[in-house]
Design a protein that fits this description.
- This protein is of the alpha+beta class and 87 residues long.
- Helix content is 51%, strand content 20%.
- The chain is built from 2 helices and 2 strands.
- The protein has a two-stranded antiparallel ribbon.
- The longest helix is centred in the last third of the chain and has 29 residues.
Amino acid sequence: MTSVKSYDVRRRSKKQRVAVLKFSSPPRRPTPPSPAVVLQRRLRELQRVVPGSSHDMGALFRRTADYISMLETKVAALRELSSTLGL
């Protein structure tokens, strides 16, 4: 489907005018990345966020699980400390 972009009147001769319609194609949507590319990006981001991570996916997932567990423990300790101190 095309849309009319503009209306242009050009002279072919002094007596005759011809109307020329300029058509433009609809804007193209970018091609979505393949699932493999999306997975690689997410793994790189996970490697960047989790300290001590490696390129081995099994080790990366184990390290991520350990890191999440450690963060949950820290949150629980800080909640206990803040309730004890009345903050």
